[in-house]
């Protein structure tokens, strides 16, 4: 599948295996506005404004009215509005119900479809690979390059197939699957590779779940992660506002059905997991690979032979304020964050609401939907009432506490049960301690005040 | 972009694997323009300075022999995580010209090339050997030579490295990549014409704003 998409987007061959790759979609957010400025200073124009799409997600506060915390961040949001208006780029801005996290609204609007190349100045762009697109994150210079030329010089990555087969147990879902994959292959396991996720477990997932899996490819080191399109994919896309329609839909569908890897396709690397071996999972350290089943205990660095690994673990435990041997389910949390491009879609909110319903949050718990439309859809189902009745805070759409760029951060020493994608030191605020988990597990932590096996609450 | 040919400089060893770009430059500094005078202080800010802004003496860049370092020798997966190019900008603002490691985060790796910083991938044992020498002889220098594709260790040993021909040429000349690509305009136009025929569905309908 990767090879098929790659081959159809080669504009020119360069030296050393580099090719000039054509980009079908370019997604922008207010964190990428600096590239517009550099472009303008060099007297260059946006080559294909009709293939660029923008939204504001990183810097807006998710309180009512979507304010910004200060003049600097307000300036960034305003600059994006100005640049997109000047260049006639479609912008889902403040006040537009379609606004939301860039990796949520691309698929939601039908911009993300199989067989295309898609880039964004954000490392979680692999999310869009869930549709069988070649999607990867780029830096600011590459954003400028795409704006000016609609292409990128790229070297073909190696390929890796990760197969997950079997039925997931109760209380186990897509987040647990990707955390288990990262724990298995390591945070650097996918470096220089494009991953294809395959197997019966993946095929039986909804699009929301597939996006959760592909989203965290970068946490396994891979810039791109993808899943072959199938009838679940096509059903999701059909009828979305910016998806192909009419004759274009019929042509596209025929091509998309031919995209999946051929049965004999060869990958540079392969890895396998059994769904039955995956449990509800939480992270204990400061790398996404530091993940264990909730039934486990905090690991002991002294039991590790490799000195580098031992030092890393000891440092992570000191930062996290954890003692080796402590049962993970004894670890108390100070707050809960349910949201981010990993876990802010309707399926995620439903899963969290099932746990919250009829219970009471004992620590501050935020629900931050991925887009204005998801917020509306959840409200139409009454999920907002479920959360508010349970003492959760129901907020506006945005990246929020996943990255804290907007000022929504946890305090030093605070422990957060979070559905986001990174538990790095300082990620959710200087000194803040992050435990990654699924929406259901985060909701369970909210109502018990500690890391909790969601299966004990009944799923 | 400043070209890269050959750099001989003090190198600093960073031993922990998986140093992410949030640690290289925390998110709250990403709103800052690169031209602000304090930009260089954002590098490794939260592990380099205490809450009141004093240097942490245990952080290696604050130790006298490594202060003038212009080369980083790191462990596996340095620069993983966020795509923020500011991680490279912060390194460059402190004078760093090369990062040597057994592996680098893919996006960080690419971002280095765009900013005159040479990423060098060496086998894990070679990189660990370099770090050991730099700890044993604080302030020792390395030479990173792009033309010959070799790192010369403090002990005089040479380590050959691979670099893509395309990226090598761009770094040696300091050429503007967008300028180069704009020279391919005819090819891009031809491609777009073919793409519009063969994958017409790939262009989204013009949305209502």
Summarize the SSE layout with pairings:
The complex is a heterodimer of chains A (459) and B (209).
Chain A: H1 2-7, E1 10-13, E2 18-22, E3 25-29, H2 34-41, E4 52-55, H3 71-87, E5 90-92, H4 102-109, E6 117-120, E7 134-137, H5 140-149, E8 151-155, E9 158-165, H6 174-185, E10 193-198, H7 200-203, H8 207-215, E11 224-227, H9 231-237, H10 246-257, E12 269-274, E13 281-283, E14 291-293, H11 307-320, E15 335-338, H12 346-356, E16 365-367, H13 372-380, H14 383-389, E17 393-394, E18 415-418, E19 433-436, H15 439-448
Parallel strand pairs in A: 3-4, 3-6, 4-5, 6-7, 9-10, 9-12, 10-11, 15-16, 15-18, 16-17, 18-19
Antiparallel strand pairs in A: 1-2, 2-8, 13-14
Chain B: E1 6-13, H1 21-24, H2 45-48, E2 71-73, H3 86-93, E3 98-101, H4 106-113, E4 118-121, H5 124-136, E5 141-145, E6 150-152, E7 158-160, H6 165-173, H7 177-182, H8 185-198
Parallel strand pairs in B: 1-2, 2-3, 3-4
Antiparallel strand pairs in B: 1-5, 5-6, 6-7
What report would you give on this structure?
The complex is a heterodimer of chains A (459) and B (209). Chain A is α/β, with parallel strands linked by helices and 459 residues long. Chain A has 2 domains: 256 residues, Aconitase, domain 3, CATH 3.30.499.10; 177 residues, 2-Layer Sandwich (Aconitase, domain 3), CATH 3.30.499.10. Chain A is 31% helix and 18% strand. A 5-stranded parallel sheet of chain A has the order 5-4-3-6-7. In chain A, strand 13 and strand 14 form a beta hairpin. The radius of gyration of chain A is 21 Å and the shape is globular. Chain B has 2 domains: 158 residues, Aconitase, domain 4 (Alpha-Beta Barrel); 29 residues, no CATH class. With 209 residues, chain B is an alpha/beta fold. Chain B has 8 helices and 7 strands. Chain B has a 7-stranded mixed sheet. The chains are: A alpha/beta (459), B alpha/beta (209). Chains A and B meet through strand 2, helix 3, helix 5, strand 8 and helix 10 of A and helix 4, helix 6, helix 7 and helix 8 of B.
